[in-house]
């Protein structure tokens, strides 16, 4: 709980008075941000390790604060979760990202979009309807949407979560387990849930050189995923050496600064366009 406290108040400024004041300031600021277009979506490409093709993008939230500049998600998502603002914020991001990705390419495109969900959102009784409404409204093909959840989401109320995920999965939406390997839950949920992808946490990827324990762990996760028919995305790939290891382990996809940092929409669109040109040459 100490760590959580520290994270919650990472944005704490001693000049702003006590923590309760600070919290209220953040909440008011976030409400305003949602109405004022201070929130922004960045996109980070997910790349096929063997062919270099861009398979899709992960949408990542930013807060462009008028006085404080760019605030990273870890500094405000905890407050958004505690105030319940994470629900309208996530739905805003989903709508925005669906429309933006659709605007980059024609409807025949197969580019996938990954969006992060918080457990508080998944727990809402109208969670499934909220997602389906956005898909209907934006006309985004459900098969191209991947929702990322952490093992944390599954630890709360597995039976209810299973039902919701199955309902969305029945409409074509796929699911990824984010930060895979960092949770403490049993792996039995992998058989009970409609999971499509495991995202290997960057703490494992970054230890990938020759004979480290991380290499053994990553190899084991990839083998298990292949056995279960799941896709694997390695996160946080920063070096050519990490990429070579992943290639030799037959990891499917990667995401990381080596290929691209998260970019604004127009930059993402140009990157994808220039990449497609190269691939067709
Ligand atoms: P995540 O979902 O695990 O996202 C990956 C994070 O790793 C992103 O940080 C990304 O910028 C960063 N990253 C990508 N490649 C590299 C790399 O090569 N090296 C390193 N060191 N980092 C890399 P970001 O954007 O700051 O997001 C942090 C976390 O905030 C996310 O972790 C996710 O848990 C949460 N988050 C972001 N956007 C949303 C959102 O829309 N909704 C919710 N609920 N959570 C979000
Ligand atoms: Ca994620
Ligand atoms: Ca992750
Ligand atoms: Ca993470």
Task: Name the features.
9 strands, 281 residues, binds ligand C2E, single chain, alpha/beta, globular, binds calcium ion, eight-stranded mixed barrel
Q: Could you characterize the architecture of this molecule?
A:
With 281 residues, this protein is α/β, with parallel strands linked by helices. It is 50% helix and 19% strand. It contains 13 helices and nine strands. It has helices at 2-8, 19-36, 73-83, 86-104, 119-123, 127-138, 151-156, 158-170, 189-192, 202-205, 213-228, 240-248, 265-280, and strands spanning 39-48, 54-65, 69-71, 112-116, 145-150, 174-180, 197-200, 231-234, 253-254. Strands 1-2-4-5-6-7-8-9 form an eight-stranded mixed barrel, surrounded by five helices. A hairpin with a 5-residue loop joins strand 1 (39-48) and strand 2 (54-65). Helix 2 crosses helix 3, helix 4 runs parallel beside helix 6 (127-138) and helix 6 runs parallel beside helix 8 (158-170). The longest helix is centred in the middle third of the chain and has 19 residues, at 86-104. Residues 5-9 have low confidence and may be disordered. The structure holds ligand C2E and calcium ion (3 copies).
